Amino acid sequence: MPRTELLAFAGTHKLAVLSTIAPGGALQGTGAGIAVTLGRDAEILQLEVIAGELNGAALEPYQKLYFSVWSDGPDRLDWPGITYFKVTPRWMRYSDFRCTSPRVVELKLQ
Question: In angstroms, what CA-CA distances link 60 with 2, 36, 50, 69, 72?
């Protein structure tokens, strides 16, 4: 699967599951609203990412992108503790189990 096709798949989704490992080794996970800058039923996209919190001037261009996907985002600006992160993929795995011959594609990005 070409990189552009894989990124196009990611760009059609607004929700993701974020899984992390805490410093003590405990597994953590949460749902997250996403906006992809660049493709259901048994299709899965897994990512390994580097994440960094954004604030101030560094946040502005990404917040604009996020609000273009999540039009109700500005309604949450006053929420206490609201935080924005930029995630940069290092590894991706796309799996499509809708067909008789499943398709699994991995891509190292760094």
Answer: 31, 15, 19, 15, 16
**Cβ(16)–Cβ(59) below 8 Å:** no
Q: Give the three-state DSSP class for 104.
A: strand
Q: Which domain holds residue 25?
A: 3-108
List Cα–Cα distances, 33 to 15, 47, 61, in angstroms.
5, 15, 17
The answer to whether 84 and 78 have CB atoms below 8 angstroms apart is no
Number of separate domains in the chain = 1
Q: How far, in Å, CA of 6 to CA of 47, rounded? A: 11
Write down the residue that tokens 């660049």 correspond to: 38
Q: What is the tens place of the pLDDT at every residue in 43-91?
A: 777 778 777 889 999 999 999 998 998 899 999 999 998 888 888 888 8
Decide if 31 contacts 14 (C-beta within 8 A): no
Its pTM stands at 0.54
